[in-house]
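// run 5 | inverse folding | seed 20
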């Protein structure tokens, strides 16, 4: 197929299309900041569905199923600032460095993405400028502002994972993720395990790294913020009821460990 020559970010996203950044509770002084890199599955109209069927664009390859509802409920329960990104990770993955092959993937699981093949430097740059950069610039600005205002920040990066990947079933209900700093992830892991009814992954189903992740390495580690990733299995939050239950449970647990987290920050 032929793709339109989208060299201008203004042509990637028309004025009538929604902006990439979605927020709840901006200005909240809760210590928790919630980010959601894979919140949405929109494809800019100019990209013509990336040559992928509408059915494929609803699958986990396009976004983190269930996480949007979970994120909104959790932000509401905690009155925490949520910063999320509405466009599909198949357009550009907001949790990948530009050097990663899956930044703009040619294939995801077993699905080829024809609209991502043979892009010019300018076309790649246009996607970065239209979607990736505004999202991360907003997170950076908010974190800068909070730091300048002396507001304590604990970063929680929200994700969901498919129960079966490439034919392999995953046993965990939820996992907490990290790279160099396991302080918050291990507190959260232990609190989730104490619930008694959950299989909790420790850096499962994924571990964070600088080559496969962006949000935690850049906004968490490089800034020295207390941070964790969390991955929730998608079948548990596929509907409104599951999203609500998981949001309520996570809000309660995060509230329970908040004072320990604040002590950890004070202890430096
Ligand atoms: Zn994700």
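// decoded
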């Amino acid at each position: 197929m032929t793709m339109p020559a989208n060299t201008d970010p203004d042509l990637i996203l028309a004025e009538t299309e929604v902006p990439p950044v979605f927020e709840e509770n901006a200005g909240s002084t809760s210590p928790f900041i919630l980010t959601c890199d894979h919140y949405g599955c929109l494809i800019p109209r100019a990209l013509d569905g990336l040559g992928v069927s509408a059915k494929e664009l609803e699958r986990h390859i396009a976004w983190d199923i269930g996480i949007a509802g979970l994120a909104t409920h959790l932000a509401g329960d905690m009155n925490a600032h949520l910063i999320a990104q509405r466009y599909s990770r198949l357009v550009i993955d907001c949790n990948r460095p530009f050097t990663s092959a899956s930044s703009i993937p040619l294939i995801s699981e077993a699905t080829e993405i024809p609209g991502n093949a043979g892009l010019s430097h300018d076309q790649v740059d246009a996607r970065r400028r239209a979607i990736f950069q505004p999202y991360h610039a907003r997170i950076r600005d908010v974190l800068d502002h909070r730091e300048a205002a002396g507001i304590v920040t604990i970063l929680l990066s929200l994700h969901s994972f498919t129960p079966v990947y490439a034919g392999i079933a995953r046993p965990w209900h939820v996992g907490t993720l990290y790279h160099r700093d396991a302080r918050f992830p291990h507190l959260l892991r232990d609190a989730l395990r104490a619930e008694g009814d959950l299989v909790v992954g420790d850096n499962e189903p994924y571990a964070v790294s600088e080559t496969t992740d962006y949000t935690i390495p850049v906004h968490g580690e490089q800034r020295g913020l207390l941070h964790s990733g969390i991955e929730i299995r998608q079948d548990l939050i596929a509907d409104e009821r599951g999203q609500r239950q998981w949001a309520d449970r996570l809000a309660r647990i995060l509230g329970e460990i908040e004072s320990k987290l604040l002590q950890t920050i004070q202890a430096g």
